[in-house]
Amino acid sequence: MKKTTIAAAKKAAKKAVKKAAVKKVAAKKAPAKKVAKKAPVKKVAAKKAPAKKAVAKKAAPKKAVAKKAAPKKAAAKKTAKKATPKTTIAASVDVGFGNTLYLRGAAPGLSWSEGVPMDCKADSSWSIDIAGVTTAFEFKVLINDEYWSAGYNEVAEPGKKTSVTPVF
To answer: 101 near 143, Cβ under 8 Å?
Structure first.
């Protein structure tokens, strides 16, 4: 025999042995559970049982009690207070960035010793609403509650808008 055929035969024999030794065994799996398909449930409204009739006992007839009619009270007349309209004071002056206009005067919520800040509506438009004014009053406009406007005191009428252009 030739060497190559002997060597080839040995190789073939080794491969056959290796293949037999390497054979893999599949792991056993638990058998799959078979679930039967459920039939769809038909929805049916529950039937109400007939209500039992209560046996009514006959009561002795009651004597009718005469009720006295309650005297009607005269409708209380409520005198609605007329809402006093707000008095508005508007000032048109440019006081510069960071400054605020204040108002002092002799009206409800105002005093001559301490000012109330006005609301800035635009660059040079300021206003304030004062409630509860029943009579005419005098007022003065100040910058930062420190610098008084020049001239006489201004006068505002109750429930009206008063526009001023103060000069400092």
So the answer is: yes
Within the chain, residue ranges assigned H as helices are 3-22
Torsion-angle region of 20 (φ positive above 0: left; ψ -120 to 50: alpha; else: beta): alpha
Token pair, residue 128, equals 């304030």
Strand pairing class (161-164; 87-92): parallel
Reading the block at residue 6, the tokens are: 């002997």
| Averaged pLDDT, 72-76 | 54
Sorted by where each begins, the domain ranges of the chain are 87-163
87-163 carries CATH number 3.40.50.720: no
d(CA 142, CA 167): 10
Q: What is the pTM of this model?
A: 0.52
